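Entry, Tuesday afternoon. Goal for today is a structural model of the target with zinc ion bound, before we commit to ordering more compound. Inputs were pasted exactly as handed over by J.K., no edits. I checked the ligand SMILES twice against the vendor sheet because last time a stereocentre got dropped in transcription.
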Amino acid sequence: MSTYLIKDAKVLGGDAQDVLIRDGLIAGIGAGLTAEDATVVDAAGQILLPGLVDLHTHLREPGREDAETVATGANAAALGGFTAVHAMANTDPVADTAGTVEQVWRLGQESGRCDVHPVGAVTVGLEGKRLAELGAMADSAARVRVFSDDGKCVDDAVIMRRALEYVKAFDGVVAQHAQEPRLTEGAQMNEGTVSGELGLRGWPAVAEESIIARDVLLTAHVGSRLHVCHVSTAGSVEILRWAKSKGWNVTAEVTPHHLLLTDELVRSYDPVYKVNPPLRTAADVTALREALADGTIDAVATDHAPHPSEDKDCEWAVAAMGMLGLETALSIVQETMVDTGLLDWAGVADRMSTRPADIGRLDGHGRPIAVGEPANLVLVDPGARRTVEPSELASRSRNTPYAGLVLPGRVVATFLRGEPTVIDGKLA
Amino acid sequence: MKRHLISAADLTRDDAILILDTAEELAHIAERPIKKLPTLRGRTVVNLFFEDSTRTRISFEAAAKRLSADVINFSAKGSSVSKGESLKDTALTLQAMGADAVVIRHHASGAPHRLAGSGWLRGSVVNAGDGTHEHPTQALLDAFTMRRRLAGGRGDLEGRRITLVGDVLHSRVARSNVLLLATLGAEVTLVAPPTLLPIGVETWPCTVSYDLDAPLPKSDAVMMLRVQRERMNAAFFPTEREYSRRYGLDLRRMAMLPEHAIVMHPGPMNRGMEIAAEVADSTRSTIVEQVTNGVSVRMAVLYLLLGGNEPALSAPSTTGTEEIAK
Ligand SMILES: [Zn+2]
């Protein structure tokens, strides 16, 4: 195993220190460290964070390997500073059995770039009718702890209640894609003045909020754990704030794109902005940023959703929903949260590593930067600027809404258990 | 004018009046035994229809042919072309064939915008109705009809009061009309049950009423919008009978209109639903006239997008048009 000495890195954005990595662990932290056998990494001006953890990634394998594979997704994750991602279950076949989740988990192991933790489907085939074998997935080699029908809402209140109750047996969490199906039939974008003008069927905020309200009450009733995926409205934030004030075990995530982009962009009818949940208003964006800052929203999750060009280079109505996220997430968080003064780098570490690792019950990730801890780390140059060039992304797909934008910050290096997966901003 | 006509919002007041004035000149062609000008000879106009609309297609076809353009009708509905990538592939084909203008009708809102803005095509794009978004040439022909009936066929519609009634939520005609009529200075009132009004309608350049009787005595024109009967299942209103009573234009309501006021409908009508048969057939109804005017307005649009900025009929003598100039 390799030995690395990271020189003069600002740990969590604090004072510059040297960090020694040996045998996959952090072996020393302090000023003026030396190690003769170490490869020295000059990190002056750079920030050292725990490796990022994504609770919400779509890797498309099995089934849509033309959009992404576990391997290409893991490369994108590493370049984005992630050392662990949760791969959503809406693959083909759906990840609703121990066999499928083990397959995805093993592909992640083989990639060597990033730990891939499969999310298990809550219901068979994401159909919302019968519970999948949640226990078998929990007991499998993949040790699934997060269960979600993401892409579809578990809208049957009884099935949702049973899922919340059942996962208590193995400390699991149900991650809900909150979308009342009848209120969003044929929905194309956020329901508001823009949808009215564009003649696109609206997706009202209340369709998300009503499900979250129901689910937090169910969670309290059965005493379980709920995680709310990609919260997108100011009203959802209010419900979460209330649920947390009651002491209920409810967590939530927000995507980078919901922290930056608004439904005004849909005026272009460019399907790169078509995403589920839809881009909302500027007032929602403000509320989401504040909620992430004050902890009402626990984590940033990318909802990385690769699609091949033929599914996006078409008219809005038939375009697939989703956008890439892994390789730009940290930059968007820097732009919307750090550079605005809402969150410091320790806060970023909490929302992008510690909290998501805890929600997913991952042992080796989201740990403090301290001697004896696993060396899952990322080095960031916050002063760098880069223009997003889709052809340069490691993802197999190109559907980024940030093409041509100049974004702050750059992931310089990522370490997974002491070995670099990215060095000098490139795959190691 | 811009290169494309996607939305009524693309038109400034001057653009709109130029189109209406040009249409007024071109309307005289229809009165001649040989209804044809050489203006767009050698140009190719493609009618690209992803959704059935024989009326609109024929209107555009007649307009293009009267200007001597070559017309290709491409009906994408029912062919193998039904998936999403079809729009791009079709556009690339039309581009390869050298289409100078593509008149597109599509069931998806934004499809013409996408066609115009994607770089798939070099020619002009004319929106002939997209989803529940817009139908700008319909708004132009409606404005043309109003201007003839209410303003002597000249200038704008400053101060005219226009009431649009019915399913505004799903109506591309209503969206385009509100935008264009506001640009032309008219005061527009939308009347509909609250379930058939779009979210955010309060930000539109018009007023909104749930009550049809109130605006009628002050209206110069009433435009009835088609109610799609299949929407009944979606509970936008309780019954057809209740809708008809509250929002239908019958003889009693027509009697509330001022003497000079006209009754309009973009067609096709549900007689007995949003409009009583006696009203549709009355002398106040401009429904047939609107169809005729549609050809003139579409000629003007195609001419102005493809032919340049000089007046359509005062071109050099080689065009042979001076004989019909006023
Ligand atoms: Zn989702």
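The longest helix of chain B spans residues 287-306.
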